[in-house]
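[09:14] KT: can someone run the structure on this one? pasting the chain below
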Amino acid sequence: MKFDVQINHKDLYRYNMYYIFTSRHGIIALFFAAMILALAILTSGKIDTIYTVMYFICVVIILLYYPIVLYVKAKTTLRLSPVLSAPLHYEITEEGIKVSTDVQEDGAVAVQDAEAVQETEVAQDAEEAQDAAAQQTAILPWKAIYKVVTVKDTLYIFSSQVNAYILPREQIENVYGKLFESLRQNVEDYRLHLKWK
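[09:31] RB: done, C-alpha cells below
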C-alpha cells in the first residue's frame, strides 16, 4: 500500500501542541497556571487588587506562551525545511513503513522522470537515471514503532518519544482502513492508541 502526505504548518502546530501538553513541560505549565489561578481567586478582595490582576496576567501569559511559540515554530520549521515542506511518500511493507521524499540532502528537488535525467546526464539506462535522482528513503521497522496515536483528525506514528510521522486523516482517508489493519497486525497492542473507526 502506498500513499503520499504533505503536511502544512497547522498539522505541525497541532503535533507540537499535542506533544507539549502530553509531556512533563506542558503538564507542569498547566499545573502552575491552575495554582496561580486558584491563588488569584482565593486572595481576591483580601489583598491589593494589583496583585490579583498580576496573578491573572501570569495565568494568561503561561497559557498563551506555548501556543504562540509553537505556532511560530511550526511556520518557521516548514519554511526552512525542504524535506518537511515537500510531500512524503509512504509505503507499507512487511518490514515496516518506508518513507521517502523527492528532496535531496542539499535541499534540491530530485528529478523523478528518468528521461529528463538522461537528457541532463549521461546514463546507460532508465534505471540508472532514476537512481541518479537519489530520493531520501528511510524504513521504520514495525518493532521500532514507539507508539501510534490518533488525535482528532490526525494519526501520529511515533518513532521515538519525541519524533512522529504526521498523517492527517483527510490525506489518508482512502487507505486508513488498510493502514489501521497493518498497524494492528504488526505493532504490539499496548503501543496502539487508535480511536478512529
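[09:33] KT: thanks! Helices lie at 9-21, 24-43, 49-80, 82-85, 114-120, 126-132, 169-172, 176-186.
[09:34] RB: yep, looked fine to me
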